[in-house]
Write a structure and sequence with these properties.
The structure is a homodimer. Chain A is α/β, with parallel strands linked by helices. Chain A contains 7 helices and 6 strands. In chain A, the strands form 2 sheets. Chain A has a 4-stranded parallel β-sheet with strand order 4-3-5-6. Chain A has a two-stranded antiparallel ribbon with strand order 1-2.
Chain lengths: 199, 199
């Protein structure tokens, strides 16, 4: 649309770069925002700027935070001695949504990858080893993705933590709650069969 | 997530109010924005603020604009004497995307509605009548939606414009390009049959 105001076209193009929004839905979102300039458009601009200017990595765990230490690490009720190791912040958020874990986290920032030349020092693995030694961690839960890189990373961490006295565990693999066998991949079914338990 | 930074939760909630985004996709969008703070998050905040502060209704046609007169109205190549009447800016954008129209627009801002007590003076109908008289309009194209309120509004405008000398037309109704009869509603098929043309 050449006869469209430049500023509005620029906003649509920027918004269309968000995951889950394409040019069409970005256009629809901008129309909605234009109708609610004061109630939605300005608050959204302010919220984005505030987060962009204050968001940082938690110095302790690598979670995204607006303070030096994130709310999870600074919550004394969560100093349980359990440390959950995740690849990235999205995984931490998924664990928190599930709500079953009351310990603290350690965000690696990725996985080891020979192809992409990502070694332990590119991730927060040295910090993890230091935390396990210094913070009285009794259990390290490896909540890494069930991918080749995720599992390679898990094995590397397991070796590096041998001898620290911390128990190492990983998330169980099996049939998802509500899952139907007919729709599951073969790998999951095989893993669930191997890890079968007495009924 | 009680242990999540307040500012980030507020951003997710605000973003989730956009059409097409729910809480889950808003969360995913915020993770993406956090990874691209400088390249995407701040530019988006700035683009939103700029549009929120400069967007206004074009004084001539009611289109959204960042100047007193919108780029379409101020484009001399579009002063063709053809005026396309649409309900809202979304419809104007749809017409512009289609790209077949090179005249100018008039945005009513809604449709007449007895139920919602919306009369001609709540819409930009008086301005339309004035424009048709004063701007040398030769054809008024009624591109209103094929709804009861849309067609009521079209009939009202047609009566009000009787005697101005301007030709009144409306968008053709029929089978959409690429449309299959089997999937079309009965009303459209009947309208297409009634408006059949020699092959």
């Amino acid at each position: 649309m050449s006869d469209s105001p430049r500023e509005i076209e620029a906003l649509i193009e920027t918004l269309a770069r968000l995951p889950g929004l394409g040019p069409r839905s970005a256009r629809r979102a901008v129309l909605h925002l234009l109708r609610k300039r004061g109630a939605l458009m300005l608050p959204l601009a302010d919220a984005l700027r505030l987060v962009a200017e204050t968001a940082r990595d938690c110095l302790a765990c690598g979670n995204v935070s607006t303070s030096e230490i994130c709310p999870i690490c600074s919550n004394p009720e969560r100093a349980t001695g359990e440390l959950c190791v995740v690849e990235d912040v999205a995984d931490l958020w998924a664990m928190e949504r599930a709500g079953g874990f009351r310990g603290r986290y350690h965000v690696l920032g990725g996985t080891l990858s020979a192809l992409d030349a990502i070694g332990p020092d590119e991730l927060r693995i040295p910090q993890l080893l230091r935390r396990v030694r210094e913070e009285g961690i009794t259990e390290v839960i490896l909540a890494l993705n069930a991918t080749v890189d995720g599992q390679t990373t898990a094995h590397y961490i397991a070796e590096a933590l041998a001898g620290t006295g911390a128990t190492l565990t990983s998330l169980a693999q099996g049939v998802p709650i509500g899952g139907e066998l007919d729709y599951l991949d073969d790998g999951t079914i095989t893993a669930a069969l191997r890890a079968r338990r007495r009924f």
